[in-house]
Write a structure and sequence with these properties.
The protein has 467 residues and is mostly helical. It has 23 helices and four strands. The chain has one domain. The strands form two sheets. The protein has a two-stranded antiparallel ribbon with strand order 1-2. It is globular, with a radius of gyration of 23 Å.
Length: 467
């Protein structure tokens, strides 16, 4: 049965769907504003040293892959990312000499060895390796260009989410989400990184948001077609940045199903059918990408079994494995309490006003100017309560279906970051300098949109109060 547009869209949603020009303008503005932050820290939400050096070691694996491709071909060493070495002894992958990777690329130095990183397909390295071979320019310029392209892709992916928010809820919700995305230091420092290519995290969410919007909602989905969209979206994610934050990405892509199911009241049967299709397609896609990775590893090590062994080992040492199976350095992370790990990330800083203002004392600097993720959860809870109460008023009744759906999507999306922090507890215990990014997938984006919608509902109620 073909999908039909839902007859129960709110009045607010209908009016915004008739403003395609406004949507396009908002999208372009969002791309421009986010790009400036990602590519050059234009809004200074991150300390400049933090911006310049964050995850530069991991990015060097992509630069090393570009150098390897230029000299040995696209599929040399299985096409895997990694590090080139100046002599016959391969570099230590665990203690990366990242400076040589950039020097070798910028100065076109020869290399004698290559140490592959076997936990990721490395599609971003393949892409930039191809671009490097066809763009006739100096390598220093091309490296800046690759950063610019990655920043643009990241900005565009987020802008497509913001454009959807604009279509569904109007400018108050979408502007709140845009402004606060710009203020996220974590989005800023990750936005241009060649290794992370964060646009690939958001691509499955983007594809499902716009697919379901185009098809009229989540009712009566065609399982094969819908499953194919999910499979392809997850495959692209795994190809371009591997299994980084994979549980977060997979839960994030189901948020549109929750939203449209609540907004259009499609019932539990249709909701579960959509979710099960998405889960099955996601699992098949991840397994397909792991098969490809095993083939790459076999090209280096000569055995598919070595690939399977590597994937299993990588999973275990990032989760809840027996510490005795690994080196002593892993013991603390493998035995850590997952609740303590989550609490550590709740204290993570989303935005630091100290970058802009001088605090009068240490207490204000630490407890007022530093906006933490626990504060945001409390803010979103207050906005949810406020919006729920406002929707009982007649002036705000028109936005009730979409508002209820957004509230459901926000609190469901909280499972996305929590899934990584809890399931990949050992990884999160160690990587406190980077894993705060998962809160933006897409919990804070939708949470701030909820705050904007609550303010919009309050304005509607106040405008219609009797004198």
């Amino acid at each position: 049965m073909a999908l039909q547009p839902s007859p129960e869209k709110s009045g607010l949603t209908r009016s915004l769907h008739s403003d395609p020009i406004g949507t396009r303008v908002f999208f372009l503005v969002s791309v421009f504003v986010l790009f400036l932050g990602f590519n050059g820290n234009a809004w200074r939400v991150a300390e400049q040293v933090f911006f310049d050096t964050h995850q530069i070691v991991m990015e060097s694996f992509i630069v090393g892959r570009i150098v390897r491709t230029a000299e040995n071909g696209l599929f040399s060493s299985g096409g895997l990312p990694g590090l080139v070495g100046p002599d016959a002894v391969p570099p230590d992958i665990e203690n990366a000499n990242y400076e040589f990777q950039y020097r070798a690329y910028r100065q076109s130095l020869a290399h004698q060895s290559f140490a592959p990183y076997k936990s990721q397909i490395g599609g971003q390295g393949m892409l930039f390796g191809v671009l490097n071979s066809i763009i006739p320019s100096a390598n220093t310029f091309k490296l800046d260009l690759f950063h610019g392209l990655t920043s643009l892709f990241s900005a565009a992916a987020l802008a497509l989410i913001l454009a959807w928010l604009y279509r569904e809820f109007g400018w108050p919700a979408s502007a709140a989400a845009l402004a606060t995305a710009v203020l996220s230091q974590w989005l800023t420092v990750f936005g241009r990184n060649l290794w992370w290519s964060i646009w690939a995290f958001y691509l499955p969410l983007v594809m499902l948001l716009h697919y379901l919007d185009h098809r009229g909602g989540a009712a009566n989905l065609r399982p094969v077609r819908f499953g194919a969209v999910v499979w392809f979206a997850v495959w692209i994610k795994c190809f371009f940045n591997g299994y980084e934050y994979i549980t977060t990405t997979l839960i994030m892509l189901t948020v549109p199903i929750v939203y449209y199911s609540v907004r259009d009241r499609i019932g539990w049967r249709n909701f579960l059918a959509g979710m099960l299709t998405a889960v099955a397609a996601s699992i098949l896609s991840v397994l397909a990408s792991m098969t490809a990775l095993c083939i790459q590893i076999a090209a280096v090590d000569g055995s598919l079994a070595r690939g399977i062994e590597h994937i299993a080992n990588s999973f275990l040492r990032r989760t809840y494995a027996d510490p005795q199976l690994f080196q002593p350095d892993y013991a603390a992370s493998l035995t850590a309490n997952p609740l303590e790990v989550v609490f550590t990330y709740l204290k993570g800083i989303y935005f630091d006003l100290n970058h802009f203002l001088a605090a009068p004392n240490d207490w204000i600097a630490n407890y007022v100017f530093q906006i933490r993720y626990l504060h945001l959860i409390l803010l979103f809870a207050a906005a949810s309560i406020m919006l729920f109460l406002l929707l009982r008023k007649k002036p705000a009744a028109a936005i009730r279906p979409a508002a209820h759906a957004l509230m459901a999507a926000v609190w469901f999306s909280l499972l996305a970051p929590l899934s990584w922090l809890i399931i990949f507890k050992a990884h999160s215990y160690v990587h406190t300098f980077m894993n705060n990014l998962v809160w933006q997938m897409p919990f804070t984006l939708f949470g701030f949109a909820l705050c904007g919608l609550a303010l919009h509902a309050a304005a509607r109620v106040l405008r219609n109060r009797p004198a």
